[in-house]
Specification:
By secondary structure, the chain is of the alpha+beta class. Helices cover 39% and strands 14% of the residues. It is extended and about 115 Å long. The C terminus is likely disordered.
Length: 519
């Protein structure tokens, strides 16, 4: 800036000098002209831009701002709101504006401090042997598919082997996944026969990311029965299971981005929604393409960590023996246990429904153990309670037809829309329009009878109205219980009973002797 001032004083300053200065400082020409005008007004402003900025009183990031920025995971607006709240309570100075706070954070913090997960360096785990560690995860595909006439984003659940980068098992769910998705993917991962092989066998350890489906009682029980250790990783640490996270990114860039219905593709103009004439893939077609891509990944793709080999070649080159499980045992271990039941003449009673099977003829009266796949209410699997022998499946008795199920779903959807509309109408508030400054006036008059009826209806839906205390009369407490009556009897001193003679003497009237003394 001092050089530009000298050129202006010598009347040699040109636009070319200003343009070169702006290019070297990566600012606009207008900014350089503004600096030059400020330097002419104030000599101290003629210092270098960095020194001039340091000479001014500007906001700097304090340790308190660093701690709050780390707590809010880089959310500057949330940090600014907390600083305002602290200043209102008199616990600190008023914070600067949000743009000033943004500039201070950009200036005083490194990229790693602003977003450690993106800019930090993480060490890679050493390569082990096959089936030593698996990683598993849910992934919501950024893709819309046709599921029963509705556009939905399916979920993918898969297991991957960390030593060979092989996808050992995969399951696709049209809507939200559950423990049933994890069990289905686990079953396809462990089975080493076609169509799931040659990858398979039991791993020694499985890494999960604190997902409630992976840590559910049913899934953890299946892992315990299969002698597999579950490693629950801390929250917000995707770098600790980088193999499956890399697979999530790879399937999006290699497959999903090229399919119709991709949700993150750029749209013309500012329309965030998809075109109405876009034809979506059916759920069956999407699943077929995903399984084909999984086969390509395992047999043809050559990841960089494998040094020119495919996951199949790395798997076959590993001499580590596999721990295989018979298909029947695997199916049994990956079912949820519902305890024992008695087989009656009406079948097996389970969750207020009757289940029957052709094999039940002549078996009434025996004790059986029921196992089932979560959310599969149409069928259960039955085993002998004493020997554990598999008896056969049992289907839901009097199961509704497909037409009845569709009619019920339509009725439920209509009722849901009606209730939602009624709720919105009841919560909608209207105010009168005004042409002068006056308090707001709420519209919507009610009669006294309407108000009493609605209040009575609201009070009638409370839990106290649902209680039925007289349905089951209370029984007498056991003899060894300490009741309030027995405690009173123990703490109250008893008065001694007088003998019969004294009682009679008190009841008789007083008499006098010969001397006139009362006796």
């Amino acid at each position: 800036m001092r050089r530009l001032l000298a050129l202006r004083q010598d009347q040699k300053l040109t636009t070319r000098h200003v343009r070169l200065m702006a290019q070297s400082l990566e600012v606009t020409e207008r900014t350089v002209w503004r600096w030059l005008a400020a330097a002419e007004r104030d000599e101290s402003a003629a210092a270098e831009p960095g020194a001039r900025a340091q000479s001014k009183d500007r906001f700097s990031v304090t340790p308190e701002v660093r701690r709050r920025l780390a707590m809010w995971k880089g959310n500057v607006a949330a940090v600014h709101g907390e600083l305002i709240a602290r200043a209102a309570k008199g616990e600190g100075e008023p914070p600067p504006s949000i743009p000033t706070l943004h500039r201070a954070i950009q200036r005083d913090l490194t990229p790693g401090e602003r977003a450690a997960r993106k800019h930090d360096v993480f060490l890679a785990r050493p390569r082990s042997w096959r089936n030593y560690v698996w990683e598993t995860d849910h992934m919501q595909a950024p893709l819309l598919v046709d599921v029963d006439g509705k556009a939905r984003r399916p979920w993918i659940t898969w297991f991957t082997d960390c030593a060979t980068n092989a996808i050992t098992g995969v399951a696709v769910t049209p809507v939200h996944p559950s423990r049933e998705s994890v069990l289905a993917a686990l079953r396809s991962a462990v089975v080493s026969e076609e169509p799931y092989g040659p990858f398979g066998g039991l791993p020694e350890k499985v890494r999960v990311d604190r997902g409630k489906d992976f840590l559910s009682r049913t899934v953890t029980a299946a892992f315990d029965l299969l002698d597999v250790t579950v490693e629950d990783l801390p929250a917000y640490t995707p770098h600790l299971k980088g193999t499956v996270e890399g697979l999530n990114r790879a399937v999006e860039s290699m497959l999903l981005a090229a399919l119709p219905g991709y949700a993150r593709q750029p749209r013309p103009g500012k329309r965030p929604s998809r075109p109405k004439d876009e034809v979506l893939l059916s759920f069956e077609d999407f699943t077929a393409r995903l399984l084909a891509w999984t086969s390509w990944w395992n047999t043809e793709h050559r990841p960089a960590p494998l040094r020119g080999r495919t996951p199949l070649q790395a798997w076959q080159d590993d001499p580590t023996p596999l721990r295989d499980v018979p298909a029947a045992d695997l199916w049994r271990f990956t079912l949820e246990d519902a305890g024992t039941r008695t087989l009656t003449t009406r079948g097996i009673r389970f969750r207020r429904h009757d289940y029957v099977g052709a094999w039940m003829t002549g078996q009434a009266g025996i004790q059986v153990r029921v196992r089932f796949m979560p959310h599969h209410d149409h069928r259960i699997e039955v085993y002998h309670a004493a020997t554990g022998r598999y008896l056969g499946p049992a289907d839901l008795a009097d199961q509704a037809t497909e037409e009845q199920v569709r009619a019920v779903r339509r009725a439920r959807a209509a009722r849901s829309r009606r209730l939602k509309k009624d709720l919105e109408a009841s919560q909608r508030e209207r105010y009168a329009a005004v042409t002068q400054a006056e308090p707001p006036r709420r519209l919507g008059a009610l009669t006294g009878a309407q108000a009493d009826a609605e209040l009575a209806q609201s009070a009638g839906t409370g839990l106290s109205q649902l209680a039925l205390p007289d349905v089951i009369p209370p029984a007498a407490p056991p003899a060894d219980w300490r009741t309030p009556a027995s405690l009173v009897a123990l703490t109250t001193p008893s008065r001694p009973t007088p003998p019969p003679a004294s009682r009679d003497r008190r009841a008789a009237p007083p008499t006098t002797d010969e001397d006139g003394d009362a006796s």
